[in-house]
Design a protein that fits this description.
alpha+beta; 33% strand; GNAT_dom; Acyl_CoA_acyltransferase; N-acetyltransferase domain-containing protein
Length: 144
């Protein structure tokens, strides 16, 4: 059993930051990571949700941006290593669909997470022009 909770301030939530450090890769750039955490903690267009076990263990986190009334952007999604491949990520995406009722969900990712998004039905588009030196994908899920 699990439940979802909104995290209203990532800056003061150390366990959330540790989990998100697996999601946002800024090698040797702690200031860049701190800037992202601050960005996602401010303003009403970003929302962060955690999935918590019955024993109050943090299982995963999803950060979304409300681009417009119909479009959600997944800015970050992270699952505790010991709970990966158990459907936690899918539960988080389904929760966002349930509470936000978007018609489109977007996410950018690399090769590490491409299979996760494919399993959820996202279409992929390589982002060569935006990221010529890295392999990045724009993932898009159209609902309704």
């Amino acid at each position: 059993m699990y439940k979802f909770e909104e995290i209203t301030n990532l800056v003061t939530n150390d366990s959330a930051q540790v989990l998100l450090s697996n999601c946002f890769v800024y090698p040797n750039q702690p200031q860049r990571f701190a800037e992202k955490i601050n960005q996602y903690s401010q303003g009403s267009k970003y929302k962060t949700y955690s999935i918590i076990s019955r024993s109050k263990e943090l299982l995963g986190i999803i950060i979304i941006e409300q681009k417009d009334a119909q479009t959600i952007i997944i800015q970050g999604i992270a699952c505790e290593l010991t709970f990966r491949n158990q459907g936690i990520g899918r539960k988080m995406v389904n929760y966002i669909i349930d509470i936000c009722q978007p018609t489109t969900i977007l996410a950018e990712t690399d090769d590490d997470a491409i299979d996760f998004y494919k399993k959820l039905g996202f279409n992929m588009e390589m982002q060569k022009e935006k990221y010529p030196e890295n392999t990045r994908y724009l993932c898009k899920l159209t609902l309704h």
